[in-house]
């Protein structure tokens, strides 16, 4: 078989279903929505509406969230069809292997590794910063040497709290999915309760005059704001990683993915409306916009509770993404494109080796490496996966065998998948040249790994 035929050889769905049969199907639609909300609503809801309103959209940030939600919705429907028809682990990586072939699947998986690992590492640093600030309110301070990445010139050597929180979450997930999902659900409820508290308290201080002018930066500012807040919705794709562990995936996966987007959109719009109504948008270019607005109206106690909500938001985001990244790494190991020990399932029905590997990598990044602009790479990794999934719907429908499987179907086919893919490409054009250059290095590294190791150890190659 020639190299061109080899890299575009498509994976067999039956082999995936057999390999993933060791997972225990325990997740319900409610669990999936909680996972999605946990990933999507993080600290961004307490920060992003303020900074984007102040610098880009004004009170029109409300419409920016609506526009971004529409863009995300079309991608979400494409994401909902795939796990409904193909209930396997690995999210877009596995879908790519089945409908495009192994090379595209690998590129998509490599993009998701970039998204998940960097996202958690970045958020772990943010969680550590919030935690240190929180305990400082009680007069407690950790030694400076253990509160930052390796930077001897500034007196920091390791971010110990970032490492501890990542390891704690990984341990909780590894102990069993039921326990970790139950904990995630409780914290998601707590987080939403705190957001609702802000909405109720803040609504008493809303002055309609603060919404005038509604679009101080013009219509262009509203659309530019939509391009920025679009990334606030990223994370719902992680829900699809759990397809092999979902009860009645054909029904529950679409509910989980689309339900996540609907609920998160409502909360983002409401927070943006109340926040810009409480105070002038010009004052909101701060790192803690919601807390800042509450302090302006002398609600310091509620502001303190919101800080707990920020910690809860970051915690649930890390739970979902560490869980998803371990399932992704398991899937790549299952196929032999990375060392096969990553594709093993232990007695607790979890991919322990994949979990340990993910934890070590994220801990090193979050605890020792200054991430800086690398966090922007999360966006490009996500959008590449979105693009392949959107156009992949067309190939999925054209496959006679796969098209016979009943499940959720994207409406207005083939127009909606094409529109979704084009919108994702447009969003990628809005990213900086620096992000593109750095991502190019990442994908060149990925291709080197694939052609030097993956293609020779591939389980699909061994079957031919």
TrEMBL record:
InterPro entries: AA/rel_permease1. It is a multi-pass membrane protein. Its main location: membrane. Keywords: Membrane, Transmembrane, Transmembrane helix, Transport. The chain crosses the membrane at residues 32-54, 60-82, 103-130, 156-173, 185-205, 217-236, 257-281, 301-324, 354-371, 377-396, 408-429, 435-455. Pfam families: AA_permease_2 (PF13520). It comes from the Bacteria. It is found in: Membrane. This is Amino acid permease.
